[in-house]
Design goal:
The structure holds two protein chains of two kinds.
Chain A lengths: L3 E4 L2 E4 L5 E7 L5 E7 L5 E7 L6 E2 L6 E3 L9 E3 L8 E8 L8 E2 L3 E5 L1
Parallel strand pairs in A: 2-11
Antiparallel strand pairs in A: 1-3, 3-8, 4-5, 4-9, 5-6, 7-8, 9-10, 9-11
Chain B lengths: L3 E2 L4 E5 L4 E7 L6 E7 L6 E7 L4 E4 L2 E6 L4 E6 L8 E8 L7 E3 L3 E6 L1
Parallel strand pairs in B: 2-11
Antiparallel strand pairs in B: 1-3, 3-8, 4-5, 4-9, 6-7, 7-8, 9-10, 9-11
The chains are: A mainly beta, B mainly beta.
Chain lengths: 113, 113
């Protein structure tokens, strides 16, 4: 049963702590993405990766970091430098970077207290 | 600068009638447009798409229309069903090199039984 897994669904952290959100896909997709959704806003691109060991900044990369050591995995670290980290985080993947349709995971709701 | 706009935050429609969701964009270089459906606390699911070289694409109850001269696209759902109640996002692809999707703010559709 192929898909994208994000865990946990809800995450709470204290201000000043780094936190890593996991994203795993078994779709054999080359490209992976991280988006952030805030209330009343569309999804905004944080980082994307075309292939293993390569990733690029999106529109709102400040305060975030990623790694892509395996094709299946694209974890996102929300650092203490991110000024407003509380949000709904969505991971997506596509067959390749030029493929039009991205498929999304269920999301992680991060709340920083 | 919002390149993709959904100016109606919400829409309420009676079951069996037509739902029309609208989306405007500013960049004439967008080459592909997509509609996603999203339930609360879940990831968006792909619904339907259209290439910029076409003006209509149909899939079952869902039809997307593209008016390039007006930089406007719309999603028609007919007949509307209560299960269609969700947030609908339109998205535009900025470049095939990055795969970057630019999302609108979303429109919440409520279909009343």
């Amino acid at each position: 049963d192929g898909g994208i897994t994000q865990s946990p669904k809800y995450l709470f952290r204290k201000e000043g702590q780094n936190v890593t959100l996991s994203c795993e896909q078994n779709l054999n997709h080359d490209a992976m993405y991280w988006y952030r959704q805030d209330p009343g806003q569309g999804l905004r691109l944080i980082y994307y990766s075309q292939i293993v060991n390569d990733f690029q900044k999106g529109d709102i990369a400040e305060g975030y970091s990623v790694s892509r050591e395996k094709k299946e995995s694209f974890p996102l670290t929300v650092t203490s430098a991110q000024k407003n980290p509380t949000a709904f985080y969505l991971c997506a993947s596509s067959i390749g970077i030029s493929h039009k349709v991205q498929f999304f995971g269920p999301g992680t709701r991060l709340t920083v207290l | 600068d919002q390149q993709v706009k959904q100016n109606s935050p919400s829409l309420s429609v009676q079951e069996g009638r037509i739902s029309i969701l609208n989306c405007d964009y500013t960049n004439s270089m967008f080459d592909y447009f997509l509609w996603y459906k999203k339930y609360p606390a879940e990831g968006p699911t792909f619904l339907i798409s259209i290439s910029s070289i076409k003006d209509k694409n149909e899939d079952g109850r869902f039809t997307v229309f593209l008016n390039k001269s007006a930089k406007h696209l719309s999603l028609h759902i007919v007949p509307s069903q209560p299960g269609d109640s969700a947030v609908y996002f339109c998205a535009a692809r900025g470049s095939s090199n990055t795969g970057k999707l630019i999302f609108g703010q979303g429109t919440t559709l409520q279909v009343k039984p």
